Amino acid sequence: MTWLVTGGAGYIGSHVVRAFRDEGIDCVVLDDLSSGHRAFVPEDVPFVDGSLVDRAAVDEALAGGVSGVVHLAGFKYAGVSVSRPLHTYTQNVTGTVVLLESMAAHGVERMVFSSSAAVYGTPDTDLVTEDSPTRPESPYGESKLIGEWLLRDQAKATTLAHTSLRYFNVVGSGTPELRDTSPHNLFPIVFDALVAGKTPFINGGDYATPDGTCVRDYVHVADLATSHLAAAKALEAGTALEPVYNLGSGDGLSVRQIMEAVARVTGIEFTPEVKDRRPGDPAVIVAEGRLAARDLDWQMRHTVDDMVRSAWEAREAAQ
């Protein structure tokens, strides 16, 4: 039993690879290292340096008895996708088409797809479920929804077994060797500001929430990896899964709560600057994780301090 992890040199993907390996499941990694790191992949894990849009690279990664794919590779920056729509669609839609074509050619019939809660756009309710309307507001969110459609339609035409996992903000580190290096994510932005002696800031402090700042899901990357593993094992066992699952906290955390935890854990005292709201930021978006808890061993196993501490320790280890 060997699974291909696309994007397996990235922040989330590298944690998924380790979760599989801890379970005794062999992996192959396909990654073009546009945002991932070769050092994040264990030396004894087969690695193909290539893009999803390169059919030869995908064929190479799938050759040799791969039984399923965890598909995490893609262009993941929602804000940047607005100014780079064609790049986003090429990487996320065309790349998924190429992957599905190659899977069919190699007889690989299982996929766990890393989708996004960006497919919901601005929901009508604070708590979204898998039945909430999908109204993505960026090329990134649209590309993820199209990816789900591609799996749905390929499954109708073939024997593909699949599920898609939707989630919001992924934080923390499962081991100090792996960390989030994205310049667009909250934790790296806050840490970079503190290390540079600057004051982190919050976008908007007058929302209709308990402390006036936006409330979102923040989920630990190790918990996320555990559910990707559970989904793969279920597909391998022939267990029927829902087409989509939310990996959500059910209640969320505010941006100010995150800032307070950062100060508490790092020992660096600061009062975040409050700037104007960003256009389009809803006050609250939180996903329910009930179905994933039932089927995919989904749990929020880490407190906010755990999340910050593990991420900070990984940041410190990289210095």
TrEMBL record:
Its EC number is 5.1.3.2. Pathway: Carbohydrate metabolism; galactose metabolism. Signal peptide: none annotated. Residues 3-248 form the NAD-dependent epimerase/dehydratase domain. Its cofactor is NAD(+). The keyword DNA damage does not apply. It is an enzyme of class 5 (isomerase). It comes from the Bacteria. SUPFAM superfamilies: NAD(P)-binding Rossmann-fold domains (SSF51735). It catalyses: UDP-alpha-D-glucose = UDP-alpha-D-galactose. PANTHER family: UDP-ARABINOSE 4-EPIMERASE 1, UDP-GLUCOSE 4-EPIMERASE. This is UDP-glucose 4-epimerase. It comes from Microlunatus aurantiacus. The lineage of its organism: Bacteria, Bacillati, Actinomycetota, Actinomycetes, Propionibacteriales. The gene is galE_1.
